[in-house]
Amino acid sequence: MIEQEADIVFNRMIARNTFLMALKSPEITSLARPGQFVMVRVSKSADPLLRRPFSICGTRGGDCFMILYRVVGVGTAILRNAGKGDRLSVLGPLGRPFDFSEKGKTSFLVAGGIGIAPLLFLAGVMDPGECMLLAGYGTSAEVVPVEQVGLSQENLLIATDDGTLGHKGVVTDLLEGQLGKWRRGRPVLFACGPLPMLKRVAAMSFERELECQVSVETAMACGIGACQGCAVRASSRETQPYLQVCRHGPVFSIRSLDWKAL
Ligand SMILES: Cc1cc2nc3c(=O)[nH]c(=O)nc-3n(C[C@H](O)[C@H](O)[C@H](O)COP(=O)(O)OP(=O)(O)OC[C@H]3O[C@@H](n4cnc5c(N)ncnc54)[C@H](O)[C@@H]3O)c2cc1C
Ligand code: FES
Known about the structure:
By secondary structure, this protein is α/β, with parallel strands linked by helices. It has helices at about 25-30, 75-80, 115-125, 170-180, 195-210, and strands at about 1-15, 20-25, 35-40, 50-60, 65-70, 85-95, 105-110, 130-135, 155-160, 165-170, 190, 210-215, 230-235, 240-245, 250-255. The chain contains five helices and 15 strands. The strands form three sheets. Strands 10-9-8-7-11-12-15 form a seven-stranded mixed β-sheet, with helices on both faces. Flavin-adenine dinucleotide binds near residues 73, 76 and 219.
């Protein structure tokens, strides 16, 4: 884990309310694995005091890592106004990454809204022939152009709630459709997005006895296992009743979590 001041290389709006920022840090970049995150101090002043967590959504040229963020409150509103030449204090890479060591299986990457961030990084390191990215948004204006992080549109399916792009409906409809017609062994699922979406993906995985890892988002104060602010209930197969999202996650097997308590 590294704490340092990183130069902003760019910070640009790529979809409605959604920004892609590249930060220069050869050290964090070389250690970063898909699913990990950084804690960013968005302001030099004491307000807001707490760092904000953001998934690493990719790397560029060996010395930069990228974050993709949606403006939702005080911290992200400050972040949107930062630009090239500014520096931000970052701590990372943090947390447990996705485990995609199993070869020869197709992976479905299921993203809800800004939950696409860690899955972009994952898709970028996977064999394109072995993964499909399913992404759901409210409307077409929110759709993240994946080529901005070096991915192709191939193997990408989009759903929008209002039907302005791709399938009209939610992303789990797309997953249901794909799993329904899947005849090439057992796929592995990776998901990140709002809790109702994760619950649906987990339920579909349990029903079909598929491996599934989810990246979970909770409020975080420290990001390094010191405050207990991010604890979630563990399933009975774990040895402890609670798991810290920042330290034991943010990526969990669905079998590690108590879905009724989430
Ligand atoms: C491991 C992890 C990875 C994350 N990765 C990303 C990412 O790649 N891109 C991204 O845009 N966001 C990501 N988030 C969420 C991001 O940290 C919050 O959106 C951000 O901290 C909000 O800061 P703010 O000061 O703008 O909002 P605040 O002013 O603090 O809050 C504004 C609103 O956002 C809600 N909010 C705050 N924190 C979270 C949270 N952690 N999850 C859900 N809602 C929250 C608040 O309840 C409130 O309604 C991640 C969170 C975690 C825990
Ligand atoms: S955020 Fe402090 S323990 Fe996880």
